[in-house]
Amino acid sequence: MIDPWSSKILEYNEIMENFGIKPFKEILDKIEDPHWLMRRGIIFGHRDYERILTAINEGKDFAIVTGMMPSGRMHIGHKMIVDQLVWYDEHGAEIYIPIADMESYSARDIDFEESRELAIKEYISSYIALGLDLTQDNIHVYLQSENLLVEDLAYIFAKKVNFNELRAIYGFTGSTNMAHVYVPLIQAADILHPQLEEYGGPRPTLVPVGPDQDPHIRLTRDIASRLQKRYGFILPSSTYHRFMRGLTGGKMSSSKPATAIFLTDTPDEIEWKVKNAKTGGRETLEEQKRLGGVPEDCIVYEILLYHMIGSDKELERVYRDCRNGTLMCGECKNNVADYMRRFFEKFSKKRKRAEKIAESILDRVHP
Amino acid sequence: MIDPWSSKILEYNEIMENFGIKPFKEILDKIEDPHWLMRRGIIFGHRDYERILTAINEGKDFAIVTGMMPSGRMHIGHKMIVDQLVWYDEHGAEIYIPIADMESYSARDIDFEESRELAIKEYISSYIALGLDLTQDNIHVYLQSENLLVEDLAYIFAKKVNFNELRAIYGFTGSTNMAHVYVPLIQAADILHPQLEEYGGPRPTLVPVGPDQDPHIRLTRDIASRLQKRYGFILPSSTYHRFMRGLTGGKMSSSKPATAIFLTDTPDEIEWKVKNAKTGGRETLEEQKRLGGVPEDCIVYEILLYHMIGSDKELERVYRDCRNGTLMCGECKNNVADYMRRFFEKFSKKRKRAEKIAESILDRVHP
């Protein structure tokens, strides 16, 4: 297997087969200038992406919806969503970014005021600094708890769903709190509200998610079809991306600082984290020179794959040099740490400038 | 039993004992000028009314909350609530009138737009014509679906409640739709939101209900105590009123026109309904002259008791004349039909004048 983008993709094939998600690579060549996350198979699956493709290729109206969950700090894994949004913005999307403060309250006990603060300071500033101009008219950022229309729509959907169904999908029990039980309905409203007439809908809508979020997509599509007659909903499309692993090899998690590079880490912290990350190196230098490294097992390589190198050619060179034993982990880490330091120095300046704008984003009035 | 206000009160005693509702008559003499519905035992029970009494007697801030459910037509049974509101308005209450359009949607499949129309045309106009000036600053009429703060509060409450609890209280099953399951939380928010700081709370709050609504009161009080620390809620007080029976002797219901006098019936229809109502008359004229009538069994008498005669003295006279066989049903019905005709002729004119004001009530902005 000499595929520079192949790391750990196998487990996802099973997910796709079980739930009717189609491989993204089958439609890849119909996209004129695919995003690197598409080209590298990080976006590995989809449902009904054809509708989005048609809209892009024919310059027609479409929406993309992707929420931010204001809990803890934004890490480099979250950057992937913003990178996609920048691409879709360039391709004509109407962009909706719900801030899941209602979910944050029910799941993490963070109240609405705290969520608002956190969203502005931690997420909105970073989104802007990552290149998404949230002041544009086609971009709609809102707090769930401040969006009456979304809350009303969630309630309208609630009539079409019962507890048995939610229990079967999410494993809720009789002692799950009702706010938690209600979350999927709010998410369905987040996803479908851009299709309401007052928002210029119905129209194709895309939701980029991790495979763990697919139950939400399936439920939302079911709700959309149950109310299709009344609202003319087009079943939402979705893409599925795999997740960058944590620096220590397990899951990247905001609640475990050692596993993640946070967007607000200092350059020194970032350098330290890169240099201590799990690699695909061998037991001894001699062995590595003889056998080459294993980029598929290397988190440092994943940083490049997901985030730091836009050019496939350049990335392939790193991959090859690692595999054939010319590029050792020490040198590679130095290079990546350098990349990262430069990136984050620039980013941190942009973030500083974005802070003022960030504060006004949630006060904008949307249709 | 020679009590002119005694009809069918016994069944309610059991309700009181089972659920810890206290008899209203025990505090009656502490009210300076009790409403006729209080004096006549139609308001028969309460929880924590002492708090409201203190507020009234000391001229302190308190709130009253009572919803209207926009489904079908407003009938004379609903008038009782407005009569109470007029009295509480005169006694310094801040008045909140939620229009239960979310409940109407989940229970009757009436959508929000239709509810709004219905509320304005059928209820708000009548409330005004019955003497409650909804344009006053201390009166807050709103649609649940348009009140973001109430919806958010319902969600905050939802975290403190689970499905098992709602099932135990309301008999919901796994196939009850989730909008229906969620209604009690919205109602709790209707009741408790006047106690939020932004509304000038916490403060004593009264909810006048029929005994069938007591589960809502108990749940709301439970929620209030679970969140007391955060919001400083004072457990809401409640009063319980019995219901006027339907004209045919059973339950008065909007969906059975023969059982109810609607506020928009024509004077001729009303006269006809009064004259055909079930009375407490005997089998024969001779028997009735000898034994007297039974006002306790008479719907025509209930009309007077609940609605048409404010003076206890005058009502007592009717009661006595019926019991001792001097007042026959025919004559009595003629009198009541006359009362009613005069009342509804005036009411209908007021209602006409109120229609224009009614349209603007829901557009008012509240704090």
TrEMBL record, chains A, B:
It catalyses: tRNA(Trp) + L-tryptophan + ATP = L-tryptophyl-tRNA(Trp) + AMP + diphosphate + H(+). One of its GO terms (molecular function) is ligase activity. Its EC number is 6.1.1.2. Its main location: cytoplasm. It comes from the Archaea. It is found in: Cytoplasm. Coiled coil: none annotated. NCBIfam families: PRK12285.1-2, PRK12285.1-3, trpS. Belongs to the class-I aminoacyl-tRNA synthetase family. Catalyzes the attachment of tryptophan to tRNA(Trp). This is Tryptophan--tRNA ligase.
